[in-house]
Amino acid sequence: xxxxxxxxxxxxxxxxxxxxxxxxxxxxxxxxxxxxxxxxxxxxxxxxxxxxxxxxxxxxxxxxxxxxxxxxxxxxxxxxxxxxxxxxxxxxxxxxxxxxxxxxxxxxxxxxxxxxxxxxxxxxxxxxxxxxxxxxxxxxxxxxxxxxxxxxxxxxxxxxxxxxxxxxxxxxxxxxxxxxxxxxxxxxxxxxxxxxxxxxxxxxxxxxxxxxxxxxxxxxxxxxxxxxxxxxxxxxxxxxxx
Length: 242
Prior knowledge:
242 residues, alpha/beta, Rossmann fold, seven-stranded mixed beta sheet, 8 helices, 7 strands, 22% strand, globular
């Protein structure tokens, strides 16, 4: 796993964060050091997917990046069920394919390059995953994306979401951000790296409050939303279609 050093050197002005070749190369290290309990979250997503995936349907991973979530789900989901991974970064999909080839990924699957902000085609789905993805979709497009997901989910199907979020109260929000940066410091990110990545993400990653995410899901037709993970400003949600 290549080490994330993208923001190690001082940059005059950080440009907006992009999931290009340099990020794809170090993404697995980046996300493991930047997302609290990332390994446990992936295990939980795999368990939830396995409980809800149905024979003869599809499992979608939207914003699949380097394929970690699909690799995790592969260990528990019935091997006859096809996985469909969608991401807008060709470099991420190339890395995903390379990882699949390396581990001899042996279930039916398809990788598609698609900007989720422009909508997505979902069909015959029992499980859809948005793992640290919705936060990167511009707010103006999120309602349409959730509508597309609901339309393509079968009755009883689920959407599994993992998101960075805002606290409900601003005082807690400031504290949670401080705790999060302490977490990154413990994972050997320098003050320069933390500040420069924060600047690069400022206009790219737009988090909602937990209550806003739940309202978005319910307004688009999900019958029930359950929080399955929470760590300060990160959460996991399971939404069930009627």
